[in-house]
Amino acid sequence: MADLQDELHTTAEVGAFEPLVVEAGAGDGHADEADAAGADLLPRAHALLAAHPVADGYSGLPWALRHLSWYDLEIGESAVDTDLPRLREGHVGALFWSLHLPEGLVGERAVGATLEQLDLVRTVVEAHPEGLRMAHSAAQVTDARNCGRVAVLPGPAGAAALDDSLGILRSLRALGLRVLTLSGASWAGVNGLTRFGEEVVREMNRVGVVADLSGASDATLRRALTISKAPVLCTRSAARALRPHPANLPDDLLAELGAAKGLCLVPLTAEQTGPSVRDVADHLDHVRDLAGPECVGLSGTYDSGAAHPRGLADASGYPRLVAELLGRGWSAADLALLTWGNVQRVLRTADFTARAAQVRREPSTASIAELDG
């Protein structure tokens, strides 16, 4: 973890960004004052993000690009929420590109569609070498940032992409997959993980694929926290206590996720967090209070078809959100963890866990028929 600690104390020293606490009024009459205070903090937000850019936990760009006959992310692309000018304006340094599939796509069709999206991700990255770089490890994410590129990490993919095969899991990892969502499969349902589902998690640990538990049942989440030797993610989950969305997490699960050193990536969607920057900040405050500052992150959820809060319509809005958090008294150290450090910790720990597991454990040949039949 020494290299991560070094990153958190580079050019922008923590002491250089001691927050200015701005009291925000409870009523709508204070909105203009709060907005003005946020604008005053924008220069500091940009400076902090220049040193600790955003590692964005979810982008639906691959599926969105499938429907465009032509695009150029370097000069800007109005047909999607994400392009390089807006990523640079928002100080995004890493981006998870979702490989999720339309509901009902299963079996060979799900595997094929996932492979096609992986191929598209590689094609898009290769077509924009001055702005994007594929990253398969935490070290490669840091290298991309140091070269002024946005690191692209394939995933999360849906569990249907495995077609109940651990061999397909290993093949997808070899092609770059970093995150798999544990929901929508017979082995990860309302009653939790089956024996085969537990073997999937163990093999994910062995090959370095991180488990995403957004949308999974409470029982699946709890069992995955017990089984997994690597930290887990919730790529699109906010606080259910503030907004009762089914993908949001109740307080007890947020506390358990924090105790296990997992990571809750709060989505910037109006449906899950609310219609304003302040609503998103409320969720971030809540998750930080319950899970801890090392267990909260950001998930833009752009190009997913979701509506976004005012001021956060695309990735260029991240400085506004950070300015709001500065105004609430968030320290530079906590903000550096929120934007960059926490995702890097999860990736580094997953990489270390995989190397250790490969020494102890051969590739699993278990089948769903053998374990759950």
What does this structure look like?
The protein has 373 residues and is of the alpha/beta class. It is built from 15 helices and eleven strands. The strands form three sheets. Strands 1, 2, 3, 4, 5 and 8 form a six-stranded parallel β-sheet that branches. Helix 7 (166-174) links the parallel strand 4 and strand 5 (179-181). Helix 8 (195-207) packs across helix 14 and helix 12 (277-291) crosses helix 13. The protein is globular.
Summarize the SSE layout with pairings.
Elements: H1 2-7, H2 31-51, E1 54-59, H3 61-65, H4 84-89, E2 92-99, H5 107-127, E3 132-134, H6 138-146, E4 150-158, H7 166-174, E5 179-181, E6 188-189, E7 192-193, H8 195-207, E8 210-212, H9 218-227, E9 233-234, H10 251-259, E10 263-267, H11 270-273, H12 277-291, E11 296-299, H13 318-327, H14 332-360, H15 368-372
Parallel strand pairs: 1-2, 2-4, 3-4, 4-5, 5-8, 9-10, 10-11
Antiparallel strand pairs: 6-7
